[in-house]
Amino acid sequence: MIEVARDVLAGTLVVAGALLALIAAVGMFRMPDVYARIHVATKPATLSLVATLAAAAVRAPSWGTAALLVLALLLQLWTIPAASHLIGRATRRSGLPPASPDAVDESPGG
Amino acid sequence: MTATAPPRPTARPRPRWVQAVFLMAVWCTLWGEVTWANLLSGVVVVTVALAWCPRPDRRHRVHPIAAVRFGVTFLWLLVTSSIAVAATVIRPTPGRLRAGVVLCPLSTDDPLVATIVADAITLTPGTLTLDVHEQPPAVEVHVLGLGDPDEVRADVAGLERLVLDAVTPIGADPTTDGAS
User: What is the pLDDT of residue B14?
Assistant: First the structure.
């Protein structure tokens, strides 16, 4: 019974993670500019990873494996925003404005 | 010999060996087992990492209950923001695509708190940290689906308060950092 429940939970999480990854991939093509693409590449992609690793942790053969997956997850949560922040800052400093015509821009540099 | 008080009595940096032991534990966990090869390669990696990274000059007090509250809030925001971005991808309307750069002032210049806030902003609905300013402390935030910029500032201030409750800098607080 518990095995079935674990399978159902892990299966749901894997499917949810795969769907989010698909949406992130589609978003790469549909978004209007670099900044919007970073949003797509960061949020659904991170939650996709959370769901997939959580699914693996639920079906993990041992506590050690589960702990390893949780550690990988925490490190990812810490570093993914840093990566997207660097891309965003580089784009910003290269002077590329957001694509939206009615964009608000309060940054000191202009 | 201890008649004169040091300038920041409670803010002494954590000793390096604590960081080294912690990093060694992470390294061995990542490899999955403790072997001589892992220990030796770990010593090399940890030495390089610690030599490379600037030494943090402030310590922080972690409040477990507030940290759990922040963690739960953070996960919830990650879920809602992913759903919001997914909606934008599936049906990109002009309102959802309205974007802008908002400057959000921070109340603290503590590097660790600013890092956590900037990370959390990136993983929460609509917002993405573009740049961090130190003087005065502020974050430049890109907003997708922008409504009122003041609302964004209020959200960031709320996030910062949650982080400050969970991780309080020791020595930077005016009430504990006295000339006594």
Answer: 66
